[in-house]
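Q: What residues go here?
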């Protein structure tokens, strides 16, 4: 086959870029039905909240080692997945690059798009052997980006990443919801997911980094707006997700009410942003009010996560209570 193009695969940027990409691939294949906020909740992606100490825009996708973060998310859906990636500076990169090009083409031949780090994430939806190119959607434009096979994996960062998807097994929705709560607890409790670096905070500590960055006034303007936009969107996703999850888990009603309260508290945050010749920026006159809202939101979310803990404790958790014979780490 000299080429293929999956024109039924459409990615739209709304949520985190990985969630947007995953949603596009799964729905085009009929592997997921439902709103995007349900996918964001079930995978735990909505709960991921990370902030760089200088509020850099990379904060939004710097929620840990990508393979480690995405595998549990997709596994909770019962979907087969394989990922690969690494640093382009490694001497073995070109060998891996050649193999990955073939893997991507094989997936496309089966009618399944591939999630690809641009950065951020996008979807490969076609290839042409004659021109030796891939066609990639970034979710912002209807126009495809073109990447040569020889440039596959090369980008403005020093690493590359792909996620391939396959068929699925049936997992009860109630089980998926319970596991998503445990993923949320994990993200909330772990302060740093990119160790040994501690300049990026996760979960509860991310609030402190965001507030501190706004207080000292030395922050990336675009990054601050992007972090807030993503934060507001994800907390609305969580509220909408819990609204539907309550049907199967009535005990989630208090958590749903807390996130409803949280979205009301942060509902005015977008009004504290202003348009300038350099793009959208935070109106610094409103930073004290913004910080007050974030402090209240942090307390509300902490209460909601404690509701998740109460539910989680009532049920066995074999994924976290069973240690494999080789120990707590994956065999290599």
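A:
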């Amino acid at each position: 086959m000299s080429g293929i193009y999956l024109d039924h695969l459409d990615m739209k940027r709304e949520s985190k870029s990985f969630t947007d990409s995953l949603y596009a691939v799964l729905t085009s294949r009929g592997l997921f039905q439902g709103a995007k906020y349900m996918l964001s909740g079930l995978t735990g992606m909505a709960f991921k909240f990370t902030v760089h100490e200088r509020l850099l825009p990379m904060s939004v996708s710097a929620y840990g080692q990508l393979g480690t973060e995405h595998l549990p998310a997709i596994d909770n859906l019962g979907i087969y997945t394989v990922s690969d990636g690494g640093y382009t500076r490694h001497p073995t990169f070109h060998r891996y690059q050649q193999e990955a090009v073939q893997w991507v083409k094989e997936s496309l031949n089966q009618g399944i798009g591939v999630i690809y780090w641009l950065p951020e994430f996008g979807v490969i939806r076609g290839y042409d052997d004659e021109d030796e190119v891939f066609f990639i959607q970034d979710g912002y434009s209807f126009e495809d980006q073109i990447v040569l096979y020889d440039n596959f994996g090369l980008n403005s960062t020093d690493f590359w990443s792909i996620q391939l998807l396959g068929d699925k097994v049936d997992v009860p929705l109630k089980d998926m919801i319970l596991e998503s709560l445990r993923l949320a607890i994990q993200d909330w409790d772990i302060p740093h997911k990119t160790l040994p670096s501690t300049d990026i905070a996760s979960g509860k500590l991310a609030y402190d980094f965001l507030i501190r960055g706004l207080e000292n006034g030395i922050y990336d303007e675009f990054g601050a707006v992007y972090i807030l936009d993503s934060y507001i969107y994800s907390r609305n996703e969580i509220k909408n997700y819990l609204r539907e999850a309550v049907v199967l888990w009535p005990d989630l009603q208090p958590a749903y009410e807390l996130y409803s309260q949280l979205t009301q508290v942060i509902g005015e945050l977008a009004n504290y942003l202003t348009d300038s010749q350099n793009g959208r920026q935070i109106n610094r006159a409103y930073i004290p009010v913004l910080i007050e809202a974030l402090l209240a939101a942090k307390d509300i979310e902490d209460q909601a996560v404690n509701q998740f803990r109460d539910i989680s404790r009532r049920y066995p958790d074999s994924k976290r209570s069973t240690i494999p014979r080789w120990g707590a780490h994956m065999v290599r």
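A: Context that may help when evaluating the design: Residues 287-313 form the longest helix (27 residues). The chain has a mean pLDDT of 95.
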